[in-house]
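Bump. Still looking for Dipeptidase structure tokens.
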Amino acid sequence: PGQGGFKKICRTEEDGPSPFPGLASGVLEMRVKEGSKIRNLMGFAMARMQGEKVERGGGGVMGVGATGGLRQVVFTGSGRAVTKTITCAEIMKRKVGSLHQLTKLRYKGVKEVWESRDGGASEMTVHRTVPSISILLSKDPLDTREPGYQPPETLGALWEEREREDTQLQTAFKRPLGPVPLDGYPACKRVCLATVARQSEHSLRRNPGSRFYIQRMASTTCIVLALVSSLCGVLLGHSEGDRALDLMSRYPLIDGHNDLAIQLRLLSNNRLSQLDLYNLSSATADITRLQAGHVQTQVFAAYVLCGAQEKDAVRLTLEQIDVIRRMCTEYKELELVTSAEGLREAAGRRTVACLLSVEGGHSIDSSLPALRMFYQLGVRSMALTHNCNTPWAASSSTLYHFHQRENNSLTIFGQAVVREMNRLGMIVDLSHSSWETAKAAISISKAPVIFSHSSAYAVCNHTRNVPDWLLRELRKNGGVIMVNLYSGFVACRGQATVSRVADHFDHIRETIGAQSIGIGGDYGGVLGFPLGLEDVSKYPVLIQELLRRKWPEQEVAGVLRNNFLRVFDEVERVREELSGSQPSEEQMSLSEELNHPCRLVLGSSLPDGAWSSLRTPRFLWAALLLLPGLLALY
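Sorry for the wait, here they are.
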């Protein structure tokens, strides 16, 4: 119409529903228009965010003057104001820092009224659909699973990238003009740069001697690059950071090991009412950070110290199971699950699924009935050992001197434990086990096994890690090794870094394939994690590094969840296959029980030589304690 003798006299935009439902009242909304001045917009917005008192003004600003810094601001623009809207958001992020961003793209209707330029009575109404962008910036965490979310930690790197590009481009424009080198840029930037280069050439032809055109086009190029970097991240996902977040939104993480439960005991003796599980600043995991790290399933370990072995380990384990169950039922963001299908259903409900594990066979006190009762309480995985041997399995650690023997493999009872776990549908966990015990368990188990939090011995030669020959046995079994992030297991020498963690993934992938890898952070159980992976919220940083190393997305999806789900599915399939089998009645030998100072032995018969053992003082006292009960039977 503008070229047909008409001029625009009115423009109205249709107000649709808010792209950010559920925002608290009082959020500052900055409506950016084509004619708005960025200086005025940013002056008002910065004052409100920093708590300065301002007067309500025009320029598209909605809101009232107030004192006290706001926590959130929304920049909205449509049509030709889209680029200006992005510019405002980028300036705000750079000046305020540590802002979470959520970007929504949509279309909106616009009605324009045009009238004749010659003063006639004719009038024309035009309805158009234009692109619109809304950018929410928040000092408080946002839902990381929302499409268009960008975490604060990626912004520093983004600005550094842009500053490098700005410097390079400004330097380039000081040299004689030549072809713009486009090969090093993503496709989105290449298209933009080619367009800017053509415009620059056209402008210089119009006025070849003017430095103003050169400087202006250099500045324009830098601004466009900044805007394109932002749009590419939102629309096309070219950066590894954006790709990592997108991939984790589609394949949220199953973390094979977390020791939050023992932290709850240490912090409050399991009194949940005394803790804020949304913000446990003294721990490396809480609900907020689990969500920020895209952890959809967390395997929580019920762990008790090895010093409780053959004393009160069973009672303490029950207390740890209880606190995990209470935690996962009292908080709506958590959900207790007991099956692979339950994990998938929880993912559909967008809750964090809690899977129960027992860390260390000393917790069952050499009792298969105790193992079965743990299963009834929801336990779906158990490590055969922790940092101590049990009477039937050997540990990788020599920290404790319990049950030392020349054979570091499984005893007959230990083999029965593995078979009973297969029958129940409980995952056999070999982290902390000696290599000989692990090899024996792999050879006996009919179902795939896991190392829930172990890394590659070839990269860091710690006995808690897994050597290549044992990795190859694991591959034959169809199991999974879930890489541990503890610094002491990541880098035996030098500083533990994200890159060094990725070296473990690369080595295991080269040795047995990506289908055998998962992630078991071990947060809460140890002190010291690589820089950049300090807590569970930082998992996207690791995924970003794998993508940077050209891991295919399908393999990363397996690492995140699919490989563990495959193992869990197969464990349940073996359970169904063994459903006709009777519970094992295998027991520790009675002679071993008699030689233990904390055992009350009730049996109808004793092996040869056992009666002579009763002549020792401790068993004499045991006999005297039993005598009143026996007399009461008559």
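DSSP finds 21 helices and 16 strands in the chain.

Edit: fixed formatting.
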